[in-house]
Write a structure and sequence with these properties.
Blueprint: H1 11-28, E1 37-41, H2 47-55, E2 60-63, H3 66-79, E3 84-87, H4 96-102, E4 105-109, H5 112-125, E5 130-134, H6 148-159, E6 166-170, H7 179-192, E7 197-199, H8 206-211, E8 216-219, H9 221-224
Parallel strand pairs: 1-2, 1-8, 2-3, 3-4, 4-5, 5-6, 6-7
Helix pairs in contact: 4-5
Pyridoxal-5'-phosphate (PLP) binds next to strand 8 and helix 9.
Length: 233
Amino acid sequence: MAAPVTTETNISENLSTLSATIEAAVAGASRPSDSVSLVAISKSHPAAAAREALDAGHRIFGENRVQEAIDKWPALKTDYTEVELHLVGSLQRNKVNNAVGLFDVIHTIDRPKLARAVAVEMDKSGHRPQCFIQVNTGEEPQKSGVLPTGADAFIGQCRGELNLPVQGLMCIPPQDEEPSLHFALLREIAMRNGLKSLSMGMSGDFETAIRFGATHVRVGTAIFGPRPPIKAS
Ligand SMILES: *Cc1c(COP(=O)(O)O)cnc(C)c1O
C-alpha cells in the first residue's frame, strides 16, 4: 500500500463536506438537485490522491495539463469504471490528438485555430468530447479565452462551420474582482446563444457561481488540499 498522500488532507471527508455545501447552495438557488456537477480538479496531485477520491465514489475529475493527464489517468480509467475526465487548462495544438483521445469534456476551446484542429481530430478519430468555449470575461491580456465581444461569432463558428459539440461556456474571473459580475456576463452570453451549461466557480467562489447558474464547478484545493509547488515543464 502506498503511504497516505498527506497527513492533513482527508479527501473523502472533504468530498462529503463539499457535496453538502453544493447541495445547500443549489437548494438556496431553487435549482434542481442534480443541476450541478462537481469536477474534482486533481492537477499537480499524485494519482494516489485521485484514487482516494475514486474510492470515495467520486467519478468526475479535471486536469489542466494534457501530459500530466496522460501520465496519470489511463491506469485509473482501467481500474475504475465510468470515470469522466475534463480538460480545464489551455490546450496546445500539438496536443490536440492526445486530448481528444483521452478527455470526455474539453473546457478550453478558446480560438479558431484550436477549434479547427479539434474538429479535424474529432472527424479523424470518431471520438467527440463535449466542448466548452472559454470566454475571457475580464479581458485580461495574460488569460486565454475569446473576448466577450467576439464570443457570439466564435460560438457560431464552432457550432456551425466546425460542427463541434458545444455544450456551454467556461470562465475564470480575474483574481482581484468580484466574481459575480463575470458569472453574470458568462450566463448572459450563454443564454443569448441558447447554451445550457456554465463551467464556472472554483474553491473560493463556487457558491456564488451556483447562484449565477453554474452547471459545472471546478474545485481542487477544497478537496485535495493545497497544491505542491508547480514543477517546471
Ligand atoms: C486549478 C483550477 C481550478 C481549481 O482551483 P481551486 O482554487 O484549487 O479550486 C479550477 N479551474 C481551473 C481552470 C483551474 O486551473
